[in-house]
Structures are given as C-alpha cells and as structure tokens.
Design brief:
It contains 13 helices and 8 strands. It has helices at residues 13-24, 40-44, 53-59, 70-77, 97-109, 139-144, 146-152, 164-193, 198-210, 212-224, 235-251, 257-271, 282-286, and strands spanning 5-9, 28-32, 48-49, 62-65, 88-91, 113-119, 132-136, 155-158. The chain has an 8-stranded mixed beta sheet with strand order 3-2-1-4-5-6-7-8, sandwiched between helices. Strand 4, helix 4 and strand 5 form a beta-alpha-beta unit. It binds NADPH dihydro-nicotinamide-adenine-dinucleotide phosphate.
Length: 291
C-alpha cells in the first residue's frame, strides 16, 4: 500500500461516491462489496475489486466502511477477523452511539482501531469541499489520516476520543431531519386536503423553515441558562395554538398522529405547572423518559 491508497468496503450509493472521490484524487482504491457487480463502474474507472474481504483488508492499512449499519459490518468482517490486525477502520455506517462504542472495542480486540464517522451529506455531497463529517476516536489516528478523510468531505469535525460521539452528532442531526421532514409531509397533507399542491405551499414552507434558526439561537442561550420565563411566549398560548393545529388537521380528515403527539407534550407541560413559562420549559420535561 502507498501513501495514497485506500480500501472501501460497502458500495451502496455512499460507498460508491467515496470510492469515486478517491479515484478522482489519484488514490489507489481497492473495493469490496457483497454484491460484486456494484463495483463494475468503479473498476472501469481504475479501482481494484478484491476477490475476498481478507484481500480487501490486506491491501491497505486504511479501510473505509460504508455499510447499512453495524450488523452489516459484523456480517462482513467477522469471517475475516484475522486480517483486521493493524487496520484503521473508518466506519461511516450509521448506527447508535452505543453500538459504535461496542464496535470500537470489538475492533480493538482484533488488533484494529476504529474511527467512527457520521457523514452529514447525501451521496451527491461526497468529495465536495463544503461537505462535512463528524469523527470520533483516537485523535492521533484521525490526524494521521486527515488528508484521506478530507477527500470524502472537505470539512471534518473531530468531536473527541469517545467512539460514540460522532454517532451521537449524526443522530442529533437525524432526529431533527426526520421529525422536520415529517412536519413538512403534514403540511403537504393538510394542503392537499384543501386542494393545494406541494408546489403551491413551497414558498411558505421554505420561509417558515428559514425562520427556525433564529428561534434555535434565541432559545439555546436561555435553555443553557435554565431560563424559561414566559416573557416572550407562554406555554398556555402555545397550548391553544397547537390545539388549533390539531383541530385543523382533524377537520381536514388527515392523519393526526404528529399534531396529537405535539399536543400531548404541551398538555404534560401544562399539567406540570408550566402554563406561565415559555414553551422551552418542555425541554425540562423531555429530559426524562415519560413515567
Ligand atoms: P445502503 O444501505 O444502500 O448500502 C449498504 C451497503 O451495505 C451495500 O454495499 C450493501 O451490500 C451492504 N450491506 C448491507 N447489509 C449487508 C450485510 N448483511 N452483509 C454485507 N454487506 C451488507 O447505504 P448507503 O450507501 O446509502 O449508505 C451507507 C451508510 O451511510 C448507511 O449507514 C447510511 O445510513 C449512511 N448515510 C447515508 C446517506 C445517504 O444519503 N444515502 C447520508 C448519510 C449517511 P449489497 O450491495 O450487497 O446489498
């Protein structure tokens, strides 16, 4: 293996984009995928398809993993565990922080070191200068491989030694992504019930979403200071508003799972005596699993 040489295991849309980015930068790229045909286009571009996982691991010290989840990693690497000694596994498969920590121990027991990664962009963002990935695990291993990691996404953010931290940052982004996108589906559903198409409400939806960062910043400071005074908004006001949202959706005959869940959280806040506090007081409630 040379200075600019890497193995990529897992050739879904993400792994393919990563292997392609390395080829574009002149790296020697060895690939392996359970379904070998997914390597065809990369082989045409100069990648070497390893005939086995063992050989894929043997080819390079630096091994990028882009699999569906950590179970897929165990399924792939367990049978080839003897070849893991001395390898750096950059695991860009998403899973829970706890599973990332367990996998780091699993790798260490086999003489390998894991860097956990959480890529924040879709395949089209791979290889782009402005794209970013969270990493965690040994700092020195991260520093050593930084040039290669910056091929995957131009920006990198090492969060600390704990292998779970990158997965945590990834999941923080994902909880926002999925719930926000569902809020958009809800808006589209309500619009549809009223004869409007997604395109009709797009400017309004975008403007609404664009207003959110201002709220994030405003509340972050107050929440960190434990300040939930009802000087700008009161939970009781929010309660009335979210009930209007629920009733509007119910009247339209569309699914109300999401607005009903929001009303439920507000109601718990009211029951806990936060009526005169800001709706940010819900954070205190949400810090604990519901009894
Ligand atoms: P895919 O699920 O499409 O690709 C998964 C890869 O894992 C394939 O190469 C597949 O092999 C392999 N795989 C799955 N199960 C097994 C198994 N049991 N044994 C061996 N190989 C297996 O994922 P993506 O490429 O889209 O993404 C990869 C990772 O990146 C995921 O963890 C995803 O959450 C994360 N991610 C994805 C983003 C996206 O926009 N796609 C954005 C950010 C992160 P085979 O080809 O044989 O099926």
């Amino acid at each position: 293996s040379t200075e600019q040489s890497v193995t990529v295991i897992g050739l879904g849309p993400m792994g393919q984009a990563m292997a392609g980015a390395f080829l574009d930068r002149g790296y020697e790229v060895t690939v392996w995928n359970r379904t070998a045909s997914r390597a065809d286009a990369l082989v045409t571009r100069g990648a070497v398809l390893a005939p086995s996982v063992e050989e894929a691991l043997a080819s390079n010290e630096l091994v990028i993993l882009s699999l569906t989840d950590y179970d897929a990693m165990y399924a792939t690497l367990e049978p080839a565990a003897a070849a893991l000694t001395g390898r750096t596994l950059v695991n860009l498969s998403s899973d829970t922080p706890e599973r990332a920590r367990t996998a780091a121990r699993w790798a260490a027991e086999r003489g390998a070191v894991q860097l956990t990664g959480g890529v924040t962009v879709p395949p089209s963002g791979i290889g782009q200068a402005e794209s970013s990935t969270f990493y965690s695990g040994p700092r020195q291993v991260f520093d050593q491989h930084r040039p290669a990691l910056e091929v995957i996404t131009g920006r990198t953010d090492h969060r600390g030694e704990d292998p779970g931290l990158a997965a945590l940052m990834y999941q923080i982004g994902m909880v926002m992504f999925w719930t926000s996108m569902l809020s958009y589906w809800q808006a589209i559903t309500l619009a549809d019930a009223n004869g409007l198409e997604a395109a009709d409400i797009l400017p309004h939806a975008v403007e609404t979403a664009n207003s959110l960062p201002g709220f994030f910043s405003f509340y972050a400071e107050r929440i960190d200071a434990g300040r939930h005074s009802g000087d700008v908004d009161r939970l009781a006001m929010g309660m009335a508003s979210v009930e209007h949202v629920l009733h509007t959706n119910a009247d339209a005959g569309v699914d109300t799972t999401l607005p009903a869940a929001v009303v439920e959280l507000f109601r718990r806040g009211m029951d806990a005596g936060h009526a005169a506090d800001s709706f940010s007081a819900l954070v205190e409630l949400m810090k604990k699993a519901e009894a």
